[in-house]
Amino acid sequence: MTQGKSHKSKDLTHLLSGEAKSRQNSPLKDAFKYYKLPGMTFLGGGLPLSDYFPFNKISADVPTPSFTKGIGAPLTDETKTTIEVFKKPEQNEPNQIELARSLQYGYTEGQPEIISFLKEHTDMVHKVPYEDWDLIASVGNTESWDSTLRTFCSRGDSILVEEYSFSSALETSNGQGINNVPVTMDDYGILPEALEKLLANWVGNKPKLLYTISTGQNPTGSSLSAERRKRIYEIACKYDIIIVEDEPYYFLQMETYTKDKEARKAKTVHGHEEFLKAMVPSFISMDVEGRVIRLDSFSKVLAPGLRFGWIVGQQRLLERYVRLHEVSIQCPSGLTQSMTNSLLQSWGQSGYLDWLIGLRAEYTHKRDVAIDSVEEFFPKDVCSYVPPVAGMFFTVHIDVSKHPKFKELGEDPIQIESLIYEQGIKQGALMIPGSWFKSEGQSTPPQKNLPSNPAQKTSVFFRGTYAAVPLDQLVLGLKKFGKAVSIEFGLD
After folding, report:
1. Which CATH number characterizes residue 217's domain?
2. Cα–Cα distance for residue pair 467/366, rounded to 1 Å
3. Under a CB-based contact definition with an 8 Å cutoff, are residues 289 and 241 in contact?
4. Residue 58 resides in a domain
């Protein structure tokens, strides 16, 4: 394969859905290129006068880029910056998205200023290897995934998903009549050999997409290594499959867990170069053919309610997304784009990296507290775990064969899982049963003799998060759930 950016992506438009291929350019949207053209009296669109927008200025206090007192510290006069966005362009600082523009129709791809920032950011972090890559705005990864399915799949198609995956993502494809075919996982993500065997034995039309939450996976907390990603990418090229990497947790990568609290202090990332080198390579960073669609978002690094994300991929494919977005989302929220762009311009690329480095430290500490608590409070005779290296989630595996009612209940792991869940509720702590995330689709022919973890036959797992509650509540909650497990197994 050709390396570097001296080449363009491979034409993969044959993988588009019938719906995507049928979409035409909107003549009305084409006419908007004449909007505000000097000398043009534009009478062609239903655009209300910006004079009637009831927002003359929006402002917010945000942290200054230094973050010297840590992420989440109370803002003071010394640690805050006030960002302001005005209605008229002449009232604003350079590179702002004035409200008269952001609150109007237009720019389905996203406002130019924020898109430019994100392109620079993407190039700095991922260094996409081919020339004709691009990115467009979305309203978050949930919408990006829905649009991806509509762009590539038709009712009755099959896609490949992780054996356990985000339930809302699975339901999105279920609702479109798409068959979710699971790929076997272990504690570290998809098994490439299982993917290869599944595709090698497939009969009929092969899946077009492999959907993976490859860093800080939801629900398992697993992260694919660089070596596995490379092998999975090679398999995707061999079988002409598009990889959809859903990566809201990518920048929540952490230091490796250690029980040694003194060693923890020494294992931190400080500089930008060190931070970027510490990131596991993304699929898009190794994509020389243009067969990776990357779904990115501010939801986990700024705020979920912003509802702003972006899709990275080759231009030919993204153009089809734009045609869909023109008649669905139109564009992300104008207020969100103005304010988020103002924040990013205030920080600059350097300040945004500082923020992400700060998040790395915060989530490393939260993860450490969670795993310390699991180690202390969960009965080791029946429980095991692999500390996550990214994301918001951790999982505790429980050997249900040691439950006193295992034989009585027909050696059914799911019934024991339900008992543990209900006991957790009684003790005042909620963790989510792993079976709720199980992918249930069927391959052609059905999967047989694929690599698997034998322990899974007598093991269930529960998903917890260290992101949602203060640290004292995190410790208390895990203490209560650990007690619930002990009670259920007669160990209390």
Report:
1. 3.40.640.10
2. 7
3. no
4. no
Tokens linked to 321: 């997304």
CATH code, domain with 449: 3.90.1150.10
Sheet of 179-183: strands edge to edge?
Answer: 133-138, 309-314, 292-297, 242-246, 209-212, 158-162, 179-183
Within a domain: 469 = yes
Specify whether 460 is located in the same domain as 324: no
> Within this chain, do residues 146 and 29 fall inside the same structural domain, yes or no?
yes
Distance CA 141, CA 315 (A): 19
Give how far Cα 125 sits from Cα of 91, 119, 122, 226, Å: 33, 10, 5, 15
Give yes or no for residue 67 having a pLDDT over 90: no
Q: One-letter amino acid identity for 150?
A: R
Q: Distance between the two ends of the chain, CA-based, in angstroms? A: 59
Percent of all residues in the chain with a pLDDT value above 90, rounded to a whole number: 82
Same domain, 129 and 242: yes
pLDDT in tens, 1-24: 444 577 999 999 999 999 999 988
Residue showing tokens 């629900």: 219
pLDDT band with cut points at 50, 70 and 90 for residue 452: low
Burial 39-59 (b: 16+ CB within 10 A, else e): eeeeeeeeeeeeeeeebeebe
- Model's pTM, two decimal places? 0.93
Percentage with pLDDT > 70 across the chain: 96
- For the chain, the average pLDDT equals 92
Give how many domains the chain has, as a whole number. 2
* Residues 305 and 437 both lie in one domain: no
pLDDT digit string (tens) for 250-277? 999 999 999 988 888 777 777 999 999 9
- Whether 19 and 132 map to the same domain: the answer is yes
- Identify whether 353 is part of a domain: no
115, 109 Cβ separation under 8 angstroms: yes
How many Å apart are CA 444 and CA 107, to the nearest integer? 42
* Domain coverage including residue 481: 378-488
The burial of 355, by beta-carbon neighbours within 10 Å (0-12 exposed, 13-18 middle, 19 or more buried), is given as: buried
Q: What residues have CB less than 8 Å from 181, skipping those under 6 apart?
A: 158, 159, 160, 161, 198, 207, 439, 441, 442, 443
Helices (H), 127-250: 141-152, 167-175, 192-200, 226-238
- State whether residue 88 is helix, strand or coil: coil
